[in-house]
Queue: 2 jobs
Job 1
Amino acid sequence: MREELYFPLFVDLSQKNIVVIGAGKIAARRVRSLLPFAGKIKVIAPEVSSEIAEMAASSEGVLMVEQRPFETSDLDGADMVLAITNDKDLNTQIGTLCKEKKVLVNVSHEKELCDFYFPGVVQKDNVVIGITASGKDHSEARKVTEQIRAMMEDAE
């Protein structure tokens, strides 16, 4: 049996509605990676990290924060959803709802519910590189991302 690999796909997110459920450290990292590419990101969580609040304040309206619990209607009109809460059951519920609604979803605690993996991203000017280890070894992907980032910085 062939090993499952994920195809790198570059998508225009400038006109897409991205919904992030959760506002902790992982959510902050993913939002920071998405901001240069996204047209609209909405973060929903009962508690919001100061990092996400600061990004929202300086995002010129791209990042909006709603400090409250998740509601099913939050998925209406979403093109892509990231379920990144500390509640695995809630993440699973969000992932299942997204599958039913045919909305692309990444569920931080359940690989089987993910339509896509969140890559390591290296960007320099108009060059964008995405790195993944097909969801199998996050530390390997992070290490390669940092190596490529260092190479890009040196290539002046």
Job 2
Amino acid sequence: MMTNPSSIKLVECPRDAMQGIAPFIPTAMKVEYLNALLKVGFDTIDIGSFVSPKAIPQLADTAEVLSLIDLTGSRSKLLVIVANERGAEDAVQQASVSYLGYPFSISETFQQRNTNTSIEGSWGRVARIAEIARAAGKELVVYISMAFGNPYGDPWNAEVALHWVDRLVKELGVRIIALSDTVGVAAPADITGMFNALIPALPDVEFGAHLHCRPDNWRMKTDAAWNAGCRRFDGAIKGFGGCPMAEDDLVGNLQMEWFVDGMEERGVQTGLDREQLMKCVEMAARVFPL
């Protein structure tokens, strides 16, 4: 039984793939690669970030990249990550950007490492970012970092996640929440349990999965999310990336081309241009230093 493409949303994340790479990828090369991605047919492309260039020097050219890409004929929407109000103010000036993404951690330690503030401080920050986005006609996507566990011993469970997600939805009007396996520690049972707790509790929210995976566990993780009702998935071609702020080895993202194959084996039509996707896979081998 075939599934309509509208039932699944694929978010390609070149921003996540690039952010931890030390050698600077030339802006022109980024633009060439992103222009190719824009032709594939992804629902959304997580294209860059407006954060301190000291924190993520690789993405210091995001504004320039956005001024140079060619959106002609593309149906993909653009998302950029922000970590504070200043970044949000810069991001909403970009007419081509539809979504602002903010990483809200349920791990106190990681929130400090990632955005240099506490969870309570992050709450005040995301509330102000929500106002900035709304005033500019942009939509806020909140990533629940360390949603499935953390390496620091900080408490986490579905109850903790639901507490914060419920507030984000009901107090700030957030409609898209992506649960992030930030350092790749999630077990399939944890993924299933988290989505089973959140999706029925907040049925009007679009829940997504941002899973950092290895070649040996991506299928079991994505199956757990899919079978629990998740229909929005982040990934990156060739699985490049990870979170440099977690001070761990970069685990890698869900390898998008593998996931697309897996979905279509299930009979799920992704709506992507497969030939163009393969061209991007070939390009990625040149763009990303190994």
